[in-house]
């Protein structure tokens, strides 16, 4: 097997986890790393994430068969510019890990066209509330989408070569046009972050004059503002590099708010009912759609008393079953037991679980 | 102990659960029920939720010491009007369970003033994804807020008498002005439902022309649209009975969207950063605030591999510890293990758990 040299510029959570994933399937590959911070390089070397590390981006670039830029969007663009001036291996594959793709693909085409390199944009869709090389995890991308956005510098074999290099990440590789990637993610990620942050600020301001606001905030509000705790720097870069799509989503949403406000003003109960019902049906369809697709979800609900070790008792019954998620308290209650939601990988395990729990406990078991 | 007669009009999830809660502390009380549906009355009688049941609201009203209206908002108002024309026990306590309070309190004052009755509005803040007498649960309100909104028909002793009747619900009783209740809930519940439904509809429409929309929707989007699956009828009533506060929140939110759109248009990175950072700090403060309050939350994060029975293994280590919630996969990954989040009732249990897991596994353990 050919021994490749992989150069990962940026040894944070994403870069470090990619390095570990590459090594899982390709222990013979040499993985070189760049990071500005001494501490990050130290951790990456200690943990065996990389074989060698530098604080000078240019030092290893010429040695690499594959260069993966896992730095913030702006620095990614700066590095693409730098690479244009450097001696690189012929046919080196260059890719990145940015959350928006249009500006990065544009920059690659602008700076690297005419050079003997391949470029494809990448967006590995995973994250964590932790960060840094210390948090790097070989399983971070397991079953996550790893999106490739081709450029004019992408050759027929570029993506399959990269998929082979990254096979140990156990991700789901998928290709999509960069502009379309940015539009879709504006809708399902970037704009929702704006909504979440705006709702949080609104409630924060309201709490200044309405002191019960914080006290009564329950499950729904918590869910809707969870992503408002995301790292501001990354989201700032995302918004400025996906301006057009995001602004378009904001304008569209304001129209929707006007529509519902109009219905409320006129106390148009049928109209409001249809509004909510349409949203409900749309989400249910999305869920149903999931069942057939790759993101299958098979959920079981168990009513459990507020007693010690009740979850343990149920998990003991389910020993060996492929449960993929477990969650208590989705409802409007913050600190007592209630409904235990368990998700399984397939219908067979779901049915088995339902049977076992019904036979061995007197808890109510429901399938959604 | 005095034997009271309690009349619960509406034997759904809320009414049924209140009945069961009353009986837990007052097995000697006589609980009478009303429901239009034969099936609901049958279930309520079979399950011992009520002692007697009627399909004629007027039949039991005159027998009651306490009347609890647990029907939709409009029907609550109709029943208040009906009660004004009926022979009731002197000093009967009348209350309700509606999600908005202003219109109900107004109706009670309008129809019942001058009559020898007491009235206080109630909003028990709990719910479930299930409904009906079949789902009634004595623990539904455990630790949930049970809000009283006084009226001109509330006497000094009304609320304490009601708290005694309802003691078996194990809820947290609290008093607040009806109009203020409606303002606060517009911010933390009613308006967020509009946001969630609107985002869901927007994404649904977008998916028609951008097919990857459903595919890439991940944790954040799911969280933000979960409440879009709520029952449309109830939310329609809530919006039309809390029109003013909700419209005011919509208008305020549109201004906030304008502000962030302006920042994005001008690529004002500092401004955007501050916007996100402010939201993040506001939410973090809210969380910190929780620690000292009744809604304490002590969270532990464990990195777990995608292996069978790994949660079981951890819960076995924690046997006897007061864990209150457990959750996998808060992050941007839909169907593989990752970070297991376990919440405890107090700092002592949290520290104990951290120690035990660190000593007995090689999983990374973090305290947030």
TrEMBL record, chains A, B:
Species assigned in the record: Streptococcus henryi
Where do the TM regions start and end? 6-22
Which reaction is recorded as catalysed by this protein? prephenate + NAD(+) = 3-(4-hydroxyphenyl)pyruvate + CO2 + NADH
A Gene Ontology annotation in the biological process aspect, one of them, is:
tyrosine biosynthetic process
> Which protein are we looking at?
Prephenate dehydrogenase
Molecular-function annotations in GO: NAD+ binding; prephenate dehydrogenase (NAD+) activity; prephenate dehydrogenase (NADP+) activity
Its lineage opens with:
Bacteria, Bacillati, Bacillota, Bacilli, Lactobacillales
Q: Which PROSITE patterns match?
A: PDH_ADH
The family line of this record is: Belongs to the prephenate/arogenate dehydrogenase family.
Q: In which pathway does it act?
A: Amino-acid biosynthesis; L-tyrosine biosynthesis; (4-hydroxyphenyl)pyruvate from prephenate (NAD(+) route): step 1/1
Q: Show where the Prephenate/arogenate dehydrogenase domain sits.
A: 4-294
Root EC class: oxidoreductase
Pfam families reported in the protein's UniProt record? PDH_C, PDH_N
């Amino acid at each position: 097997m050919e021994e490749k040299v992989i150069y990962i510029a940026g040894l944070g959570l994403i870069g470090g986890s990619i390095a570990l994933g590459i090594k899982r399937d390709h222990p013979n590959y040499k993985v070189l790393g760049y990071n500005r911070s001494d501490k990050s390089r130290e951790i990456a070397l200690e943990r065996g994430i990389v074989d060698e590390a530098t604080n000078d981006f240019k030092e290893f670039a010429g040695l690499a068969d594959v260069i993966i830029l896992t730095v913030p969007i702006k620095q990614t663009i700066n590095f693409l510019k730098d690479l244009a001036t450097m001696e690189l291996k012929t046919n080196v594959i260059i890719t990145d890990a940015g959350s928006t793709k249009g500006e990065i693909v544009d920059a690659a085409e602008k700076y690297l066209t005419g050079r003997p390199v391949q470029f494809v944009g990448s967006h590995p869709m995973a994250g964590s509330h932790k960060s840094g090389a210390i948090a790097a995890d070989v399983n971070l991308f397991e079953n996550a989408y790893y999106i490739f956005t081709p450029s004019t510098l992408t050759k027929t074999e570029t993506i399959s070569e990269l998929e082979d290099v990254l096979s140990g990440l156990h991700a789901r590789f998928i290709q999509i046009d960069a502009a379309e990637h940015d539009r879709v993610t504006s809708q399902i990620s970037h704009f929702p972050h704006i909504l979440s942050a705006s709702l949080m600020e609104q409630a924060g301001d309201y709490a200044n004059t309405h002191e019960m606001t914080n006290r009564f905030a329950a499950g729904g509000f918590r869910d809707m503002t969870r992503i408002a705790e995301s790292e501001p720097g990354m989201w700032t870069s995302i918004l400025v590099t996906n301006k057009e799509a995001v602004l378009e989503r904001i304008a569209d949403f304001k129209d929707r708010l006007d529509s519902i406000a109009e219905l409320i003003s006129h106390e148009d109960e049928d109209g409001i009912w249809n509004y909510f019902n349409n949203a409900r049906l749309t989400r249910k369809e999305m869920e149903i759609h999931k069942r057939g697709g790759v993101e299958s979800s098979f959920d079981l609900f168990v009513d459990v008393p507020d007693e010690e070790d009740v979850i343990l008792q149920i998990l003991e019954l389910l020993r060996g079953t492929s449960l993929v998620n477990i969650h208590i308290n989705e409802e409007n209650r913050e600190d007592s037991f209630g409904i235990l939601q368990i998700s399984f990988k397939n219908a067979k395990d779901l049915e088995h679980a339902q049977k076992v729990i019904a036979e061995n406990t007197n808890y109510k078991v429901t399938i959604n």
